[in-house]
What does this fold into?
Amino acid sequence: MTDEELEAAIASDPDSNFPLDEGEWELVIPKKQPVSIRLDEDVLGFFRETGPRYQTRINEVLRSFMKAQKAKAKAKKKTKE
It folds into this structure.
């Protein structure tokens, strides 16, 4: 597939909302830090049963919680102002 064909295919995809010009996007690779964490057996078992990349899913759940807490703190701060 040529670059032109690829760009045409992307442009015709209704789910594609990505800019095609290199100046309009950037690659972000999150830095991972190895840690040792103790989880309850049932929690770890649940995530392992979901298949490969279960650690990524655990990270996504923790990130979601983090964002919710930050939003809650920001909203609380606004109400005090």
Observations:
- The two ends are 56 Å apart (CA to CA).
